[in-house]
Amino acid sequence: MKRNLLIIGMLAVSASCFAITPTGAPPIARGANPQISVDPQKAKASRDDSSGLRKGTIEAVSVGSGTFHVYGQRLTFDSKRVKVFGRDGKPNSLYALRVGANIRFTLDATDPLHRRVAVIYLD
Fold it and tell me: Are 98 and 59 in contact, with CB atoms under 8 Å apart?
């Protein structure tokens, strides 16, 4: 008897749950790209201008043309202005850059394309 009353009570409570429907905003569809208009000046102002260290492994290097590749990205350097430091922290030559070398580097903030390297640390 108690069991039947318990079942009837549970059905009465759960019946009201089926009648509750949300009336809020519809859910956001996954994969839908919102249409955002970006002002070019705001985009330029919010661009990453940090001078933080990046790191990677040299995949290709050309001291003569002032370029090297890290993670498939071509980066440039001015052979007269770039500073190279070895593991000991002492200044080093550009010719110490070798394919396969682990490096840390900073980008030159004055370069508008943010592709020119200012300082290279050999690890």
Answer: no
